[in-house]
TrEMBL record:
Intracellular or extracellular location(s): Cell membrane
Record key words, sorted: Cell membrane, Lipoprotein, Membrane, Transmembrane, Transmembrane helix, Transport
Protein topology in the membrane: Multi-pass membrane protein
Keyword Transmembrane helix recorded: yes
Ranges of residues in domain ABC3 transporter permease C-terminal: 276-410
Domain MacB-like periplasmic core: 30-245
The keyword Glycoprotein is annotated on this UniProt entry: no
Transmembrane stretches, start-end: 25-51, 276-298, 318-346, 383-403
Protein name per Swiss-Prot or TrEMBL: Lipoprotein-releasing ABC transporter permease subunit
Length: 417
């Protein structure tokens, strides 16, 4: 099979030109363009992979504590008929687990320390159906026996209160009891049964779990305030929530996991789009350096162009030769950037700790970024557009200089040779 001579000549200019070119500055500019494209592509892949990993890591850790869908009565009131609502929810083919819960806010006191907390009353026997926390802290949750008034604290909350397993803390309910001396807050001594670590700082620092029957007694409720559901596919949560709103008998509120942290997820998506645009400009700057490279290359090869024209080469063939030369710089730079970016993205869990140890710094404080390790998840939906955009920009940058080469007059070019 014989390749078109335009491809062969263009590849020869790209491959062998650096050693034989009279003007070494052209070779330098070409190398800078190639390096710039490679670094731009690598930076895009690394940044977007880290942002994907960060979003997935926070989402997974959040869903280890938060259920896919929650059904609850307005104003924190008990559900009218818990068992009927659970049966109706389970009738949806996407629902694989359901468990009742009680949700309320309270204060925890230990000596002079006092912390606000979100109290969640759970059924330890059913908790494994709706969250993954039971898989890691199942033994601790089994200690929540109705009537014993035991609690399981998030590890950061326990650390801030200075308590551990077996210690006694005071839970202060917001609704008080009326006495001749006035309204007094209701307080209950609770025993710490253990702690859990979800890896999500927001929940580890504020969530308290107890048996839902104990929560009903403390907050004077006649039953659970809601039902938590787990789905086959977490991405179907908005659709399933909409379907349940039309099929449940009672008028209840339904909330899926995307609504609980809607602002955070929207902010991450916006940041990802902006980073893509900003870093794409870096690739564009490097790609358009090819313009100056090819313009100087055309001046350097004017004699070659004239000889090819006198041998019968058409203007379109001359244009094709220089487009091949410029496009090859873009292809090589893009492939090098893909290799570098993917190598770093897939090994960032090793690279970042090494840099942190070398610099004696910590890049991700847990209390600010919710997670403490740098995650990474390269996705083809990001990598393919990056490569395509880089190649398109490189190709576009070659059009004008190649067109100028095709307009070179052979007689004018050979006059001074």
């Amino acid at each position: 099979m014989q390749f078109p001579y335009e491809l062969a000549v263009g590849w020869r200019y790209t491959r062998a030109g650096r050693a034989t070119r009279r003007n070494g500055f052209i070779s330098f500019i070409s190398g800078v363009s190639m390096l710039g494209i490679a670094l731009g592509v690598a930076a895009l892949i690394i940044v977007l992979s880290v942002m994907n990993g960060f979003q997935k890591e926070v989402r997974d850790r959040m869903l280890s504590v938060v259920s896919h869908v929650e059904i609850f009565a307005p104003q924190g009131a008990p559900l009218p008929d818990v068992e009927r609502t659970m049966r109706e929810a389970r009738s949806n083919p996407e629902v694989v687990g359901a468990a009742p819960f009680v949700s309320a806010q309270a204060l925890l006191a230990r000596g002079e320390d006092m912390k606000g907390a979100l109290v969640r009353g759970i059924d330890p026997a059913r908790e494994g159906e709706v969250t993954d926390l039971a898989a890691t802290s199942g033994e601790v949750l089994k200690r929540l026996v109705p009537g014993e008034f035991k609690v399981v604290l998030g590890i950061e909350l326990a650390r801030s209160l200075g308590v551990s397993e077996g210690d006694v803390i005071t839970l202060i309910a917001p609704s008080g009891q009326v006495t001749p001396a006035g309204v007094l807050p209701r307080m209950k001594q609770m025993t710490v049964a253990g702690t859990f670590d979800s890896g999500h700082y927001e929940y580890d620092s504020a969530l308290v779990m107890m048996h839902y029957e104990d929560a009903q007694r403390i907050f004077r409720l006649e039953g659970p305030t809601g039902i938590r559901l787990k789905l086959k596919d977490l991405h179907e949560a908005p659709r399933v929530a909409h379907e349940l709103a039309n099929t449940l008998t009672d008028r209840l509120f339904i909330r899926d996991w995307t609504q609980q942290n809607k602002t955070w997820f929207a902010a991450v998506q916006l940041e990802k789009r902006m980073m893509f645009i900003i870093l794409t400009l870096i690739v564009a700057v490097a790609a358009f350096n090819l313009v100056s490279t090819l313009v100087m290359s055309v001046q350097d090869k004017r004699a070659d162009i004239a000889i090819l024209r006198t041998l019968g080469a058409s203007p379109s063939s001359i244009m094709g030769i220089f487009m091949v030369q410029g496009a090859m710089v873009g292809v090589i730079g893009t492939l090098a950037g893909l290799a570098l970016g993917l190598a770093i993205a897939f090994n960032i869990d090793v690279i970042v700790p090494a840099i942190e140890q070398l610099l004696h710094a910590h890049f991700l404080p847990k209390d600010i970024y919710l997670i403490s390790k740098m995650p990474s998840e390269p996705q083809s939906s990001d990598i393919v557009p990056i490569a395509v955009i880089s190649l398109i920009l490189s190709f576009v940058a070659t059009i004008y200089p190649s067109w100028r080469a095709s307009r070179v007059n052979p007689a004018e070019a050979l006059r001074y040779e």
